[in-house]
Specification:
Oligomer: single chain
Helix content: 40-55%
Length: 266
């Protein structure tokens, strides 16, 4: 079995959600504009570091998503997001703080390691330099700024801890492309300790053990003010509401034959 950070994260958020996604075969429809924007923008970043025309690449990729974009956040439109993407690429170029040497080798790099009889894989956005200092790089697109206080907060980001664990690189940076009225690029940097990497290793091993023991009890999140169930794409399955399922989800062919899982004793 092959695992990834996304699978571990989804299980820790809600084991039942993990089951819906990875065992029952349900998948969120690719209709959220911000998700499609992030994919198109990441392709444009690759073009930027390869000394190609990132604006042209972004326009092409974002145009290809136009028909899919059905869910926009408040105030967003396809045209507005196109303008923001172009302005963010210009800002990145003007500030010139991030370098990736040999981009064909150092962008979207696959790392893997053995966890017992299982494989664990991670795709790292990049390995390069921020302000001339070598580090692991992660790209993020967001409609609001990431918090920078208290100092050291970024070191608690589990995804960055995972990437540091996979690569052995302690210095990590998160480059956040903020889509707002005046676009901004945040350059956030931190160091992941060896203790954090070891703790994450134990967390992965324990989570895989629970998954393979078929522990898929739901973690209900309906409690004000933290209501994660209300934004979960799989909430229609938990509520048994077919209309919500049809709007937000599609199912992998053949996955409907997994009814035997319902007979497991949790």
């Amino acid at each position: 079995m092959t695992y990834s950070y996304t699978q571990i994260s989804q299980y820790l958020t809600c084991p039942r959600r993990y089951r819906h996604r990875y065992l029952d075969g349900w998948k969120e429809k690719d209709s959220r504009a911000n998700m499609l924007f992030g994919r198109a923008f990441e392709i444009a970043l690759g073009a930027y570091f390869r000394a190609e025309d990132p604006g042209e690449v972004f326009f092409r990729e974002w145009s290809a998503c136009k028909a899919q974009c059905q869910q926009f956040c408040k105030g967003d439109t396809w045209d507005r997001m196109l303008e923001q993407g172009i302005m963010l690429l210009i800002r990145l170029c003007q500030e010139d703080r991030v370098r990736v040497r040999k981009p064909k080798q150092n962008l979207q790099i696959k790392f893997g390691r053995q966890i017992g009889k299982n494989d664990f894989v991670a795709y790292i956005d990049g390995i390069g330099e921020l302000d001339g200092k070598p580090c692991l790089l992660e790209w993020k697109t967001s409609s609001s700024r990431y918090p920078e206080e208290p100092r050291g907060l970024l070191a608690l980001d589990q995804q960055l801890v995972c990437y540091s664990w996979m690569t052995g690189i302690a210095d990590v940076a998160q480059i956040v492309f903020v889509r707002k009225r005046l676009v901004e690029v945040q350059y956030l940097r931190t160091t992941i300790s060896e203790e954090q990497r070891q703790e994450f290793s134990h967390l992965v091993e324990d989570t895989i053990r629970r998954i393979e023991s078929a522990e898929f009890l739901p973690h209900s999140g309906i409690r004000f003010p933290q209501n994660p169930c209300t934004t979960c794409p799989y909430v229609g399955l938990c509520l048994g509401q077919q209309e919500m399922i049809d709007v937000r989800l599609v199912r992998r062919p053949g996955a409907e034959n997994l009814g035997w899982l319902d007979e497991l004793n949790y």
